[in-house]
Fold:
Amino acid sequence: MKTNFKEAEQFPSFYSDPFELRLARNAQEINEVFKLRYEDLLLYYNAENTNETGLFTDQYDDFCEHLIVIDHTEEVIAGTYRFVRKEHLINTDLFITEHEYDLTLLKPYRIMELGRAVVRKEYRSGAVIMLLWRGIFEYAKRNNIQYMFGTASFNGLNVRDYEHGLSYLYYHHLSKFAIPALGENPLKLNILPLEEVDEGLAKRQLPPLVKGYLRIGAKFGPDIFFDYPFNSIDVLVIMDVDEFDPKWLKKIVG
Structure:
């Protein structure tokens, strides 16, 4: 369990009544994050991924930072994101994304991994998501981050369920970094030829998290990774902090 909260205590709070945005500052808050992840993330993708603790955590949680939005009306954590920078990698040289993708091309830059994004079901109307993005941007700027990255998941393992959405990402939002998925002959996002992609259907096939990334100007790696234990199709997301969409940025930071 994380014990050093110095960085979290130095990061300011941001308020939008009844919500407070900040980094988690104690073990109790982090435990609540783990519980939220378990209920609204782990079990959402695979209902068989149960455990006795009712928590979803891993080794990276001992040294990363956890962004949280607290609803002070109910005194619950409404949403969360996990931040991992190079400086956080104490007992490993690898980001968790490197279990799926070869990040060699990104490693020379000032980078930060985003992960474990969860918004409680009853808070998905927009306000909490906007606050989380404000926190992400503020944290990235304070730490001179150039690129943020992570994976986004499509529920299930059948690419045909998402062939228009995945192909749309390839043809319209492909990253300049040709970062490969691990494994032999990984499947490319461009499942369909460009002329067969139905853009309307494609956008309906995209998960809310991917749509959110697109709004801020995110790009995507060329390869798919099948996460069988998690029961998901993963794509690599890459964001240049200096290329955030200015209209979207104005909405989140004012």
User: Anything to note?
Assistant: The first strand starts at residue 14 and ends at 16. The chain has one domain: 5-253.
